[in-house]
Amino acid sequence: MKNMLNCYYHMLQIKAEITENTELFAQTYYQLSLKVGEISRLAKPGQFVHLRVNQKTVPLLRRPFSIHSVGEKNLQILYKVIGKGTEILAQRKKGEFLDMIGPSGNGYKLPDGKVKVVLVAGGIGVASLYFLAEELTRRSLPFVVLIGGKSREDILCRDKFKKLNVDVMVSTEDGTSGRKGLVTDLLQELLPTPHSQLPIVVYACGPTEMFKETARIARKYAVPCYLSLEKIIACGVGACQGCVINTKDGYQRVCKDGPVFDSEQIIW
Ligand SMILES: Cc1cc2nc3c(=O)[nH]c(=O)nc-3n(C[C@H](O)[C@H](O)[C@H](O)COP(=O)(O)OP(=O)(O)OC[C@H]3O[C@@H](n4cnc5c(N)ncnc54)[C@H](O)[C@@H]3O)c2cc1C
């Protein structure tokens, strides 16, 4: 109950001014910056914002986007155009306003004590893991980043991660960048020989099949693993139960109890 009240208490609804909406690649990937006032101070890695892409009745529902990074009074999201809502979002201009609720969701449970962290990103999953990487850097926790995508253009943020002075390993399914194969192949190779005496913790964000394989590998090596799940979210405040998943603790709402879950809790 305390958790629930805390969450509601910290969630705000604002009109956020767009300060940048930049195309990163071929009308597919964009970075959006918004003036959000206090929300930037409240935001934690792994949380998301729930945006109305316009003020019309279509699309009616808000769209959830992970918080990619925060500044003093602004935040960024990184998004991929996949349907009507994101198409409209890509047309929105600097100086316009978006109705936003946030920060929403539980966020990543940060490691206690000294551990080595492995971040596993599939495609646009890098969006939330970059904010986590910034926090790990702030806490001087060592980490490595594995980024996978279908092709070279799906590998986002490689240089941004490198600027944090960490090892970044890349894989693509067609071999146009990094190792040919899946990002989970990189994880499978890394975990048995992590080059570190520290205990390992894995955090992952990406598509469902990647989650299942990441969870399987983490279990094989008895490594804690946290997954930031993506489901279609309707109300975004835990009321409609439209985004439930099955877990060992019963049904849980991705928007409210998640989006981050311990992989061992999830019933796939
Ligand atoms: C907690 C959370 C954080 C997210 N963070 C990001 C982010 O940082 N960047 C980003 O680009 N996207 C993110 N997403 C996904 C994003 O919300 C969807 O891509 C967006 O809502 C699609 O809206 P649309 O109207 O363009 O597509 P729609 O027209 O609604 O859908 C197009 C197609 O995509 C499928 N789809 C839509 N939403 C999802 C979803 N959430 N999961 C799986 N399939 C979906 C639909 O079933 C349909 O087939 C996040 C989702 C969640 C739940």
Throw out a few tags for this protein.
Elongation Factor Tu (Ef-tu), domain 3, 7 helices, 268 residues, alpha/beta, globular, 7-stranded antiparallel beta sheet, binds flavin-adenine dinucleotide, Rossmann fold, 7-stranded mixed beta sheet, 22% helix
Written description of the protein model:
This protein is an alpha/beta fold. It has two domains: 9-104, Elongation Factor Tu (Ef-tu), domain 3, CATH 2.40.30.10; 116-265, Nucleotide-binding domain of ferredoxin-NADP reductase (FNR) module (Rossmann fold, 3-Layer(aba) Sandwich), CATH 3.40.50.80. Helix content is 22%, strand content 34%. It is built from seven helices and 16 strands. It has helices at residues 2-10, 39-42, 84-91, 126-138, 158-162, 183-190, 208-220; strands spanning 12-25, 29-35, 48-52, 63-66, 69-70, 74-80, 97-104, 116-122, 143-149, 167-172, 179-180, 200-205, 225-228, 244-247, 250-253, 260-262. The strands form three sheets. Strands 4-3-7-1-2-6-5 form a seven-stranded antiparallel sheet. A seven-stranded mixed sheet has the order 11-10-9-8-12-13-16, with helices on both faces. Helix 6 runs parallel beside helix 7. The longest helix has 13 residues, at 126-138. It is globular.
Biggest β-sheet: count, sense, barrel?
A: 7 strands, antiparallel
Count of structural domains: 2
CATH architecture of the largest domain: 3-Layer(aba) Sandwich
Supply Rg: 18 Å
The count of DSSP E runs of length 2 or more, i.e. the number of strands, is: 16
Secondary structure: helix percent: 10-25%
Number of helices: 7
Low-confidence region ranges: 1-7
| Mean of pLDDT | 93
Under CATH, the topology of the largest domain can be stated as: Rossmann fold
Bound molecules: flavin-adenine dinucleotide
The CATH C-level class name of the largest domain:
Alpha Beta
Q: Report strand order across the widest sheet.
A: 4-3-7-1-2-6-5
Q: What shape does the CA trace take?
A: globular
> CATH homologous superfamily of the largest domain?
Nucleotide-binding domain of ferredoxin-NADP reductase (FNR) module
Q: SS-based structural class?
A: alpha/beta
SSE ordering: HEEHEEEEHEEHEHEEHEHEEEE
Q: What fraction strand?
A: 25-35%
Q: What separation lies between the terminal Cα atoms?
A: 26 Å
